[in-house]
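Researcher: Go.
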Amino acid sequence: MKRSSGILCPVASLPSRFGVGDFGVNARKFLDLAKQSGFSLWQVLPLNPIGYGHSPYQPFSSFAIDEMYVDLDELTSRGLLDKVPSFNENADRIPYEEVKVFKSAYLHKAFEKEMRISPRCLVSFRNSHPWVEKWALFMLNKRLEGMKGWSTWRKDRKECIEKGSPRSRIGKERAEYEIWLQMTLYRQWSELRRYANSLGIRIIGDVPFYVGYDSCDVWANQSYFLLDKNTKEPAWIAGVPPDYFSATGQRWGNPIYNWKKLEKEDFSFLIERLKRNGELYDVIRLDHFRAFDTYWKIPAKCPTAIDREWILAPGYRFFEVLQDKCPDIEIIAEDLGELRPHVDILRQHFEFPGMDVIQFTFEESNIKKKKEHKDFDSVVYVGTHDNDTALGFFASLEKEDQKLWSKALDDAKVPDGEINERLINFAMEKNANYVILTAQDILGLGNEGRINLPGVINDINWTWRMKDFKGLEAKVESLHKLNKEYDRL
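Model: Structure:
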């Protein structure tokens, strides 16, 4: 496999006239800059409709794409809208709620016009994306219930409707609007992906292992999750025990899968999730891979994630079925944290590359002995969306630890420079096929550029954005030189 490198940058973090990145001209400009810099991979975070705390890992659906990514200017070019004024173009952080309210008015106008021009425009999309019918009904009900969680809806909406078809004309129009949104999003994303591929850039998509409780996935497939029979609330929830990020563990709140039922049905629900994502991306980074070996099962009533138990998952059987049904899916296994050896055995059995995050694996002794944390099939990161930036991380270390890191880099003959530049050089030199660098580390940002602090709900997580491309443009020449030096062009 050819050595290559890429950039990790959420679509939402790209510059935009509307305060949040979308599938428009600036996404193409980002790809142009990536190409000029010598990168051939772009890793994005989940594109699904964001849920609680703006997290893309608690989405309302595994199949739908968030409406905020619609490129309004493209709708203007198609004659569905007049020129749309800019909105929050220079916002320091992504103002999700404001942007969605602003865009909604224009999206409804574009929908109404396209339906007048081409009243049968939804037919083909509905036929090729059968999941969209339940999604439309879910969102119709959710909006009617003031966006409250589905478990609090009135009874006739709360109960799963296998063949959802709103009775009223107004209800039908509202459901068609949801379908039109998804048709538009899928079309625009497909065009953007084709543009990326034409430049020789492949897109890595991030697929969460679990789904959000307040999601169409759970509402329409309740038997696939361990829910309370009476309340339909989760009986057991997901998370991880105490780790690097939290002394009390992470209590995510996602419902646990009913693995027995899933296995009886050849894991059809999970297979379809990955199959659909395989149609959106060139490579899938499978988040929380370790849960295909064992998963942390927490009683829903427990306030922390401490002192619970690991449960064995049917990982081998699942991946055998997946490879049989979807042989072309390329997977990166997110295998971070304290793992039992069986996780690595499972990963290697199916020949999935794992992850090597330098902030976790960098040790003075490893560099002095020139040891690799993992073998050549790993994907190397300085940090991921859950880590602080390189500069922020280094600043948080004790002075003695900073000296050890600097000395170890000197001993490894890593060129001088700022710590983010040195760690990027160290990552690029490693014996790994893929190296992924965050946009923030390339730009040399401190912890103000951190995307997410796990286990924390606040107004900062997931809101980092670039106002423009000046910083990346200034780095193009040096990045191309770096990729050439380390044979990653």
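Model: DSSP finds 19 helices and twelve strands in the chain.
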